[in-house]
Amino acid sequence: MSTLQLNKAVVFFEVEILDAKTKDKLCFLDKVRTLFFSFHWYPARQSIRLDPKGKSLKDEDVLQHLPVGTTATFYFRDLGAQISWVTVFLTEYTGPLVLYLMFYFRVSFIYAPKYDFTTSKHWVVHLACMCHSFHFMKRLLETLFVHRFSHGTMPLRNIFKNCTYYWGFAAWMAYYVNHPLYTPPIYGEQQIRLALIIFLFCQIGNFSIHIALRNLRPPGSKTRKIPYPTKNPFTWIFLLVSCPNYTYELGAWFGFTLMTQCLPVAFFTLVGFIQMTVWAKGKHRSYLKEFRDYPPLRSPILPFIL
Amino acid sequence: HYEEAYGEARLKCPHVALKQHRKPGFFWWLVLAMAMMRFYIQKGTHKGLYRSIARTLKFFQTFALLEVGHCALGIVRTSVIVTGVQVCSRIFMVWFVTNSIRQIQNEESVILFLVVWTMTEITRYSYYTFNLLHHLPYFIKWARYNLFIVLYPLGVAGELLTIYAALPFVRRSGMYSMRLPNKYNVSFDYYYCLIVFMLSYIPLFPQLFFHMLRQRRRVLHGEVIVEKDD
């Protein structure tokens, strides 16, 4: 909460808010300080709450239904510069897509000059490029057409943090997989085939879950419901897991690790697993808190384990 | 007199366990200081000094990890990150630079940072101990919040010069490094790792230094500093 100090004479405003159609007086604000009406604090940045340390009120909250008397006190907090989720997702996913391709085509200055614009002699490297690019194209398209976001925006600094993470790891992985001195998997074709099956299975699974979650929520609404298995067999995992999208995502990256047999990829999978587990546990907890009849058999991310 | 004060403090101060930890810490650094002085007086040279105190140093420097735990638990009012960074860089210096790269153990820069660390830590531990006993002589407070202005930069200089001296030996021996091709498809070059470590002093050192300067203004001059996130 920023503290304001005004030493000079303050101008107070009286504000009337009327209904646009009926011209009924909806509310009257007395003694409003001018600062509050600065365009600097656009709605996405405003957090209004009943308690200074408490949770923010939602857009849908109605004054009459809040636990306040006839005089209500709200606390305002500036959430800082905001950026929309869609923008963040598009930026953070386009980076890896482009970067990986740059390493795949061995653009100048990455490897020794004699390797510039050459192609790898291992077919698994081509396969890996297709899988990686497919994965991020899928994510971009889902961001544009599938996902329904409950929050419109997030703090601006998140885009720098997220992009550093995705772009950094993508560059690190791509460097080694597309390196002229790359060593293909030990168990050769068998390993690659198995890895590809796991990868594709999990991609389809992940997509099915995203569609199922989208269908839970009608367009424009922000209602929350318990997700259940549908006719699609890939969604039957909902019986055992709260956040199967993360489960499938982990599986896909595990498949990619197996396919490339590259330690940086394994590392990326591990870090992603840790982060997704944290998110899944949070989501699971909020499901349990919100719904009395939440199925008890479900685990956050790994069936019966985690 | 000390026992009396200690006894009294036992009743008042809830963090007796902390004090009992503080005493060994203080003790080790004092031991180290005395060992170093004795060596220099006896031998007249600093060559071989590091070897003589190496084991003790490694042993209790690693114990300093507990410091970070104390901060995390809120027992001591220092930032976790600040202490964490300091402890990590010291452990890195002791275990991965001076311990592993024998050729630089007789460098003057090693003595420089050892002396600086010893002086800083003795002052710091005295400050904490006397503070917990509610019996803090002003000169210790003065020392803690003024000596660092000279000691910090000197310590950093010692550490950086040591790493710089170690670089050619690392390059030549290829220690802790892994090259392509290998079945894990990864490579690691300790030489560049050390260079990155040295460069990290550029953003980190000013932050630590100005943190201490802010503390100094607050403690010695009673200025109220408004921290950014409230």
What helical percentage do the residues of chain A reach?
Answer: 40-55%
How many helices of chain B?
Answer: 10
Largest sheet of chain A: 2 strands, antiparallel
Shape of chain B: globular
Mean pLDDT of chain A: 87
Quick check: average pLDDT of chain B? 80
Number of strands of chain B: 0
Roughly how many Å is the radius of gyration of chain A?
Answer: 25 Å
Order of helices and strands of chain B: HHHHHHHHHH
How many E strands of chain A?
A: 6
Low-confidence stretches of chain A: 1-6
What does this structure look like?
The complex is a heterodimer of chains A (306) and B (230). Chain A has 6 helices and 6 strands, in the order E-E-E-E-E-H-H-E-H-H-H-H. Chain A has 306 residues and is mainly alpha-helical. In chain A, helix 1 packs antiparallel against helix 2, helix 2 runs parallel beside helix 4 and helix 4 packs antiparallel against helix 5. The longest helix of chain A has 29 residues. Chain A is elongated and about 75 Å long. The N terminus of chain A is likely disordered. With 230 residues, chain B is mostly helical. In chain B, helix 4 packs antiparallel against helix 5 and helix 6 runs antiparallel to helix 7. The radius of gyration of chain B is 20 Å and the shape is globular. The N terminus of chain B is likely disordered. Chains A and B meet through loops of A and loops of B.
Short key terms for the protein model shown above:
heterodimer, A: 306 residues, mainly alpha, two-stranded antiparallel sheet, two-stranded antiparallel ribbon, 6 strands, 45% helix, disordered N terminus, B: 230 residues, globular, transmembrane (chain B)
Describe the protein's topology.
The complex is a heterodimer of chains A (306) and B (230).
Chain A: E1 12-18, E2 25-33, E3 46-49, E4 75-78, E5 82-84, H1 85-104, H2 123-145, E6 153-155, H3 157-177, H4 188-216, H5 244-260, H6 263-290
Antiparallel strand pairs in A: 1-2, 3-4, 5-6
Chain B: H1 2-12, H2 16-43, H3 49-63, H4 65-73, H5 80-98, H6 108-132, H7 138-146, H8 148-173, H9 190-199, H10 201-221
Helix pairs in contact in B: 2-3, 2-6, 3-5, 4-5, 6-7, 6-8, 7-10, 8-9, 8-10
